[in-house]
Amino acid sequence: MRYIPSSPDERAAMLRDIGATSIDDLFRAIPPSLRRRAPLRLPPPQSEIELLQSMRALASRNATAETHAVFLGAGAYRHYRPAHIDALISRSEFYTAYTPYQPEISQGTLQAIFEYQTMLCQLTGMEVANASMYDGSTALAEAVLMAARLTHRHTILMAETVHPEYQEVVRTYVQTLGLQLQTISYDRASGRLDPRSLTVDESVGAVVVQSPNFFGGIEDLQSAAEAAHRVGALMIAVVVEPISLGLLRSPGEQGADIVVGEGQSLGVPLSFGGPYLGLFATRQKYVRHMPGRLAGQAFDNQGRRGFVLTLATREQHIRREKATSNICTNQGLAMLMATIYLATMGPQGLREVAIQNVQKAAYAARRIAALDGYACRFSGPRFNEFVIRTRRPVSETLARLRERRILGGVPLGRWYPELDDCVLVCVTEMNSRQEIDRLVEALAEL
Q: What pLDDT does 274 receive?
């Protein structure tokens, strides 16, 4: 953002034009007791060189994926990013691209979106995908609203093992829309959806299941889909770790009707939490109820291929009140990163990455569980995350690991009180055997 200071004369002119005599007049509505009168405790002014040095010193205090051994997951994952991703997205025609309303000047952007949609359909087993959304949580909220529109039902069943923050976003979306959100509990032994609590009747519009779930467990999507379809409900599969689809059966093959999730793993950096990439795919028959936009392939009268914006169910720019969704734009640059990543890795490369995640996580879980004072909390099949129970208080364990420059995992007690003694640990292809052994040795010393 450019900083253009205004002179005292200019500020006086602006105040005069709005009928104010001083800056204080702008804050007259704030009670005097709530106004700060004393000056802020700011350090003395610095030169540009001194300021840059101060900022670098502050930045050096951050714990990053480069300075620490990272075993954090819970929706944001450290994966390998091929070097050419940043080189390609830095081309000016990509990083300055905007909504492709005019196809004659947006062919590159439209083709990238088209390729992204195609690969996302291949990955999820769906028939149509949109041009990406904000992130996984808002993509899930949009999917729930879409299911309610399609079924005209007002009850949504959501597994307790769906990412807790995703659940909160959905609650925020539906709280004023007359939709009821009911929770499906998880089996305390396996860490997966408890089939005994999955009771679907004709008031249910959608069943929401995440796989791999928040604990890393792989769910039986097919059984949940069959239970939903028996009463005419939709099955929404939340795939928070799309890398897993390099190895597991796609949600589409298991009966999912809408597939959403977080695409950060597909070549998008951690970036301290964003911007990320929402995945959204569904079946062709539901395409006109899908939020966002759809890029398509077309041919002119001479048979030459071109790309166009085929469908924009978000009619906000024309008829806002008739819009299917008012979600505003797609994460174009993050979508391009995912497109380049998937094209680079290909099916075999993605499978190899997924296998490394499974094998390294299994090795780490086995070694940690063999230590005195630690145990794997759940017994079900998993991908690259697992839950460890620790005899020592979780906060103390993680603090001691940080002293050794190890980010050991995510404490679960803040969302699941019954797991107050547990840590969610994530291992990806980026964690070397030496890093895993270092974590195990540090835990053993505790």
A: 86
